[in-house]
Specification:
Shape: globular
Order of helices and strands: HHHHHHHHHHHHH
Number of strands: 0
Length: 283
């Protein structure tokens, strides 16, 4: 019996001797305090956005009235204080251009739900893209034309700015609480057709930026490839603006720059819910 206990004791001792070196060389388990936390790289969007805001601040009021409406949207949606007076600038342009005042007054509703529209102003609506969007802008007051669905389908088939404005019309119809007179499949087709306007080549132009910005306004930003956003940042001018087309020399364009800023702000500040593009009724 004593001999058996001695053998068991020797075996235990041998196991201890073999285990000690292994324990001495074992890596310590990291604790939450000792685990390094990676530092996120600063977003390239932030300086691009700051430079664009500076472009508008340093250049004065845009000469493009419709760019001012986009800046008003940016102010209401993202709280950019620099654009708090965008509607005031729009009204100033409208006062200085009486020949354009009727049409400018029509689109003023983007920034003022209670816009004092004169019904004779609607006679100034003649451009094809405006004939697509204006019914959507006032659908809660005037309803939609009986042939409006075919108008949207035709605009989608024509493409380019007619296509982007068909998308804009869908946004406004929904925000005004009206029913979009299209099937879900047709609306999905408008989304994807706009996404197809964004090419893979390094040139960035106004139509691509409009398609991308409008897709984000429609809650369809996932259809915009992030590689395009990177190209947008890469072709930003030193003054903080963008050209109508990045391969054509010239000055930064107000409209294109406002669209680029609208796009970058959506990418930098993603949200499941934004304030509407159209100004809400006065409380």
């Amino acid at each position: 019996m004593k001999k058996a206990l001695f053998v068991v004791f020797c075996i235990i001792a041998l196991c201890i001797l073999l285990a000690v070196p292994l324990l001495l060389h074992q890596e310590p388990t990291p604790t939450p305090e000792s685990t390094p936390t990676p530092t996120p790289a600063p977003s390239a969007l932030q300086p691009a956005i700051a430079n664009t805001i500076a472009f508008f601040e340093e250049s004065g009021e845009p000469s493009n009235a419709y760019a001012l409406l986009l800046l008003d949207v940016i102010h209401r949606r993202f709280g950019i204080a620099a654009f708090a007076d965008a509607l005031q600038g729009y009204d100033q342009i409208m006062a200085e251009r009486p020949d354009q005042a009727p049409l400018l007054r029509v689109f003023r509703r983007i920034a003022d739900h209670d816009n004092p529209l004169q019904y004779s102003d609607l006679e100034a609506v003649s451009e094809d893209i405006d004939l697509v969007t204006v019914p959507a802008l006032y659908c809660d007051q005037l309803g939609l034309p009986s042939n409006y669905a075919s108008m949207l389908d035709q605009a989608t088939r024509i493409g380019n700015y007619m296509l982007t404005h068909a998308l804009l019309a869908c946004i406004w119809i929904q925000e005004n609480g009206c029913k979009v007179p299209l099937s879900d499949a047709s609306i999905e087709n408008i989304y994807r057709a706009n996404a197809a306007l964004i090419n893979d080549d390094p040139v960035v132009d106004d139509i691509e930026l409009e398609a991308a910005a409008f897709l984000y306004l429609a809650g369809q930003g996932a259809l915009v490839n992030h590689a395009f956003v990177e190209r947008v940042i890469a072709v930003q001018n030193n003054d903080g603006g963008w050209l109508l087309s990045s391969d054509t020399p010239g000055d930064s364009d107000w409209h294109t720059t406002a669209l680029a800023l609208l796009l970058l702000l959506h990418v930098e500040y993603p949200s499941d819910s934004y304030p509407p593009m159209l100004a809400p009724p006065s409380p």
